[in-house]
Write the structure tokens for this entry.
Amino acid sequence: MKFPFKTILLGLCFALSLTISGQESTIISDTKSTAENTPNSNKYKILFEAVKATQMEAILNESGPFTIFAPSDAAFERFSNKKIQDLIDSEDKRKLKSLLSYHIVAGHLSASKILRAMCKGNGKASFTTIQGKKLVAHMDGVNIVLTDPTGNTARITVADMNQKNGIIHEIDSVILPSRM
């Protein structure tokens, strides 16, 4: 008996959503905003430094809901510790702000919502970031993978860290709105 692609993908999506939803971080509190939680984590120090440098704290503290695909410090180091530090130290913060806002989507996209969108999209889903460019999600085995316009990919390593004004998904790479 041959199973249609959509049926298999839907089953995989359901199984993965049950697995991912249990990966809550003990440091992140769902009663605090994204801007309040990020400095309390040992994994997002570079991200928080970049948020402070671009003065996006107020937006991430009071607005929302947002879905943030948050590169860990290790992801920023793989990207280039020197390049990210140069962007943070730069007088002109436009490139850094563009980079950060490419990691944010308006709305509350839990892993199960991302998976449902991929199921409806025959294995792919596209989301518009607050920066204005598209981010494409697809499955690679049991992993949700994000692809930017330049072909870089990032895997969601920890999903569904709820905040009072959105949700954070940790990713293992920095994604780019354009070549940097």
Notes: The chain has seven helices and seven strands. The radius of gyration is 16 Å.
